[in-house]
């Protein structure tokens, strides 16, 4: 239940290859993502609520360091207590410590059965509360995604659909047929206790694919609303218990903005995205998009969250790291960077803010 | 669903505290283990097959570095892509990089229902094959532990029981009542397809406790067989597909030894322990115990495994690290160690073999 790949393979290509074996790699970020990039950014996706992130699904990797040495970070065993966790050090290092050349991935069995469900709510808070209650119920839900009414409107516009333009939760339950049904009923009950309505679910493979398409094409649906605009996609993550509050605070700001903004959350992880559409030729709009992004990052940090749930730091999020992690953590990172890349040749100018020194 | 603790609290004490909240910390190593030590050694236990190891269950931690600086390694969010994974760097560093002073742990809901099952097999290979088939079936088993016939004999001697002295698997299935039963039936069928017999299971809390006691007290049962002896407890881990072979190779060696040796495996992870009993006053026996340990580590390394699945490195396993990881990986660890502890004051002489230099 593992596979060794080179970094340039896409996760979708990999899963096509694995399907005849009844196995899959359980991460589903954006469709173009490659395994190497997924490692470098410590990414995740909608399945993380059950299967974890890149952090949990890489057994070992090969990395070429700045001095040309090739390191294999671990054995093929699922568990090891053999020294420093170099695998996890490289995952999320965004190319600043080395170039990943090979990855051993942990695979999962394709679920025997699954049910996809959808439910409407009067407010985003109701939807968030149901996501949290589902997590607290002990059900190991496979996906729980939250879309706000603006996102649903975008989907209607893009696909010529007629979905109720209200906050919506989408679930996936997996397991045996009986257990998938049982989970569906449990969550239907939870939803009804939080003003949920129009709970629908699908079991037929084509019907499930159609239903889930709604979520998968959310970003492109946004562009359908404003075809010549760019999108600033925000990404923050907070403790589960703070998600409802984060979304409320953010919605107030987003709804009163002149820009069109949609909300998509991996609700079971407390991970929250906004798609902010702006005219790239209008400097005022670009600044407003940045202001909204800034607002949400600070709201998340105030709620003990992180400025980046799964998208990485790059250059754009360096400015938030000191507030999130503190200077001591950044100095520690810089020491490690200096030890492994003394000449600063590996993806310079990224990840560690330039003002950090030790 | 998280809790902040100081490192000296035992996991059992913590779980007593959490029980009224319906939550627990899902790692179960030896009974005396404290959270700090569990972090430092990257330990796990029988529940890792479902819930993961320390690696997966720590959200952040506070560590005091060699220079006195206090670092908090991350926010309270479940997922983060904010820079180097300092949390995972410290976990498993065995005190060589800093002193852990505070840990934020990820908690799970206490399962609604559970079933404990036990089954006998004619050979250890049959038992291992059933463990593997159970993992491959997609069931997220909560525990699957393998005991060999010598271990069962020890349990009989210690507890005055009359269990068949044959290779035995013990399972725990969790979820809703219906799903727990469903999993039990699926695995019963798998067991019967691999010469399994005497499949029994318990649902009543007291009966489950009694049944699981067999596994929990395995080590002390060994001492009952040889009350004045010491035990060398080995710990290796291999890819799941190599477990049956590792156990076969090891059993040949163990059975032909003059010493009493028992096998206990966290079979779902490929993690395999032997308890080798020896007279501490008999140098020949001590050397034989070491020889057996050495044999099993090398067998595991030959099967792409690790010399230490969950017990750490300390001094005893340093000699295997170069064969397992290669000199480049060890030099990388040394560089990190030198960067964070230039004066070598943090638990000197441990983890990184002394001959490694860069």
From TrEMBL, chains A, B:
<dbReference type="GO" id="GO:0004458">
    <property type="term" value="F:D-lactate dehydrogenase (cytochrome) activity"/>
</dbReference>
<dbReference type="InterPro" id="IPR016169">
    <property type="entry name" value="FAD-bd_PCMH_sub2"/>
</dbReference>
<feature type="domain" description="FAD-binding PCMH-type">
    <location>
        <begin position="1"/>
        <end position="110"/>
    </location>
</feature>
<dbReference type="GO" id="GO:0071949">
    <property type="term" value="F:FAD binding"/>
</dbReference>
<dbReference type="Pfam" id="PF01565">
    <property type="entry name" value="FAD_binding_4"/>
</dbReference>
<dbReference type="InterPro" id="IPR016164">
    <property type="entry name" value="FAD-linked_Oxase-like_C"/>
</dbReference>
<dbReference type="InterPro" id="IPR004113">
    <property type="entry name" value="FAD-bd_oxidored_4_C"/>
</dbReference>
<dbReference type="GO" id="GO:0005739">
    <property type="term" value="C:mitochondrion"/>
</dbReference>
<dbReference type="Pfam" id="PF02913">
    <property type="entry name" value="FAD-oxidase_C"/>
</dbReference>
<dbReference type="GO" id="GO:0008720">
    <property type="term" value="F:D-lactate dehydrogenase (NAD+) activity"/>
</dbReference>
<protein>
    <recommendedName>
        <fullName>D-lactate dehydrogenase (cytochrome)</fullName>
        <ecNumber>1.1.2.4</ecNumber>
    </recommendedName>
</protein>
<dbReference type="InterPro" id="IPR006094">
    <property type="entry name" value="Oxid_FAD_bind_N"/>
</dbReference>
<dbReference type="InterPro" id="IPR016166">
    <property type="entry name" value="FAD-bd_PCMH"/>
</dbReference>
<keyword id="KW-0496">Mitochondrion</keyword>
<dbReference type="InterPro" id="IPR036318">
    <property type="entry name" value="FAD-bd_PCMH-like_sf"/>
</dbReference>
<keyword id="KW-0274">FAD</keyword>
<keyword id="KW-0285">Flavoprotein</keyword>
<keyword id="KW-0809">Transit peptide</keyword>
<dbReference type="InterPro" id="IPR016171">
    <property type="entry name" value="Vanillyl_alc_oxidase_C-sub2"/>
</dbReference>
<keyword id="KW-0560">Oxidoreductase</keyword>
<dbReference type="GO" id="GO:1903457">
    <property type="term" value="P:lactate catabolic process"/>
</dbReference>
<comment type="similarity">
    <text>Belongs to the FAD-binding oxidoreductase/transferase type 4 family.</text>
</comment>
């Amino acid at each position: 239940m593992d596979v060794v790949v080179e970094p340039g393979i896409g996760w979708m290509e990999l899963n096509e290859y694995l399907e005849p074996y009844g196995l899959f790699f359980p991460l589903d970020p954006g469709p173009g993502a490659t395994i190497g990039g997924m490692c470098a950014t410590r990414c995740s996706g909608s399945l993380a609520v059950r299967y974890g992130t890149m952090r949990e699904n890489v057994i070992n990797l090969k990395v070429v360091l700045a001095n040309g040495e090739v390191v294999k970070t671990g054995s093929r065993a699922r568990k090891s207590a053999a020294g420093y966790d170099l695998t996890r050090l490289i995952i999320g290092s965004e190319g600043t410590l080395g170039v990943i050349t090979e990855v051993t991935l942990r695979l999962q069995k394709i679920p025997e059965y699954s049910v996809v469900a959808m439910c409407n709510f009067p407010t985003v808070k109701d939807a968030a509360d149901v996501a949290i209650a589902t997590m607290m119920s002990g059900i190991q839900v496979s996906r729980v995604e939250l879309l706000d009414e603006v996102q649903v409107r975008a989907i209607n516009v893009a696909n010529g659909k007629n979905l109720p333009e209200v906050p919506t939760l989408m679930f996936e339950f997996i397991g045996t047929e009986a257990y998938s049904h049982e989970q569906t009923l449990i969550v239907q009950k939870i939803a009804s206790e939080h003003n949920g309505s129009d709970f629908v679910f699908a079991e037929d493979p084509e019907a499930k694919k159609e239903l889930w398409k709604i979520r998968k094409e959310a970003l492109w649906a946004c562009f359908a609303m404003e075809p010549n605009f760019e999108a600033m996609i925000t990404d923050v993550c907070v403790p589960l218990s703070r998600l409802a509050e984060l979304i409320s605070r953010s919605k107030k700001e987003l709804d009163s903005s002149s820009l069109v903004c949609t909300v998509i959350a991996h609700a079971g992880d407390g991970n929250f995205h906004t798609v902010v559409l702006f005219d790239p030729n209008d400097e005022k709009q670009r600044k407003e998009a940045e202001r909204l992004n800034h607002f949400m990052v600070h709201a998340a940090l105030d709620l003990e969250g992180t400025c980046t749930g799964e998208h990485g730091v790059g250059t754009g999020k360096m400015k938030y790291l000191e507030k999130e992690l503190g200077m001591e953590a950044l100095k520690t990172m810089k020491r490690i960077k200096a030890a492994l890349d003394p000449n600063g040749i590996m993806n310079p100018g990224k990840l560690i803010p330039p003002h950090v020194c030790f």
